[in-house]
Design brief:
Order of helices and strands of chain B: EEEEEEEEEEE
Largest sheet of chain B: 6 strands, mixed
Number of strands of chain B: 11
Distance between the termini of chain A: 37 Å
Largest sheet of chain A: 7 strands, mixed
Structural class of chain B: mainly beta
Number of helices of chain A: 0
Helix content of chain A: under 10%
Low-confidence stretches of chain A: none
Order of helices and strands of chain A: EEEEEEEEEEE
Oligomer: heterodimer
Strand content of chain B: over 45%
Strand content of chain A: over 45%
Mean pLDDT of chain A: 95
Structural class of chain A: mainly beta
Mean pLDDT of chain B: 94
Radius of gyration of chain A: 13 Å
C-alpha cells in the first residue's frame, strides 16, 4: 500500500496570505488528522476528519480550517497567515474505526515571512 | 498544552548500548503510542500499548506501561547509529476520540 502523501512539501508565504495544504491518506483509511509542530509548542492537534465530517477539533483559531472529500483526501487551509504559523504541518491517516495507530505523512514545511 | 512529559530531553549513548526513555502523563488514557521522528520529517509509528496491557515487545523495542503511576518507558536494546532520532510518546486520552496528545520528546543520539 502506498503511504500517506502530503503536498506541497515546502511552502513560503508572506504575512496576510492564505495557504492550502493537501493530504492523501492510505487507501481504505477514512480518518485524517492534522497536527502542527513547532519548536516552542511541540506537536499539537489541529483537527480530525472522518467520512467528510470534522469529528474532533483542537485549540486553534478559526483561521485554521479543513475539509475532507469523498475519496478521503483532506485539505487544510490557513487564512491571514501570521509569522507564528511557520511550522511543520503533519497529517495522519488511520482507519478511524477504533483508537489505533496512525500513519503520518512526511509533512509540509510552511515558512511565513 | 501537552499532557505527556518525557525524560530525559536528550540522551547520548554508544552504539550497542541500551537506551531508555520515559513518559509521564496526568489523566486517564485509552492507549499510549511511541513514535520516532528523524530530523523534522514525518513520524513513524513504533508501538502501541493499551491501558490494560503492561508490557509489549517489537523487535529491539520494549515498552512498559504502569497506569497506577501514569508512566511508560521505551527501551531500545543494542542501539545502532540509525536509531538516532527524536522519540515521542503520544496519548489517546479516555473520551478524547482519535486525537493524539504528544509528549515533549527525547532526542536520542547513538554514536559509533
Amino acid at each position: 500500500k502506498a503511504g500517506v502523501t502530503q503536498t506541497p512539501r515546502y511552502l513560503i508565504k508572506t504575512r496576510g496570505q492564505q495557504v492550502t495544504l493537501s493530504c492523501s491518506p492510505i487507501s481504505g483509511h477514512r480518518s485524517v488528522s492534522w497536527y502542527q509542530q513547532t519548536p516552542g509548542q511541540g506537536l499539537q492537534f489541529l483537527f480530525e476528519y472522518f467520512s467528510e465530517t470534522q469529528r474532533n477539533k483542537g485549540n486553534f483559531p478559526g483561521r485554521f480550517s479543513g475539509r475532507q472529500f469523498s475519496n478521503s483526501r483532506s485539505e487544510m487551509n490557513v487564512s491571514t497567515l501570521e509569522l507564528g504559523d511557520s511550522a511543520l504541518y503533519l497529517c495522519a491517516s488511520s482507519s478511524g474505526q477504533g483508537l489505533d495507530e496512525q500513519f503520518f505523512g512526511p509533512g509540509t514545511r510552511l515558512t511565513v515571512l | 498544552s501537552q499532557q505527556g512529559e518525557e525524560d530525559p530531553q536528550a540522551l547520548s549513548i554508544q552504539e550497542g548500548e541500551n537506551a531508555t526513555m520515559n513518559c509521564s502523563y496526568k489523566t486517564s488514557i485509552n492507549n499510549l503510542q511511541w513514535y520516532r521522528q528523524n530530523s523534522g520529517r514525518g513520524l513513524v509509528h513504533l508501538i502501541l500499548i493499551r491501558s490494560n496491557e503492561r508490557e509489549k515487545h517489537s523487535g529491539r523495542l520494549r515498552v512498559t506501561l504502569d497506569t497506577s503511576k501514569k508512566s511508560s518507558s521505551l527501551l531500545i536494546t543494542a542501539s545502532r547509529a540509525a536509531d538516532t532520532a527524536s522519540y515521542f510518546c503520544a496519548l489517546i486520552l479516555t473520551g478524547g476520540g482519535n486525537k493524539l496528545t504528544f509528549g515533549t520528546g527525547t532526542q536520542l543520539k547513538v554514536e559509533l
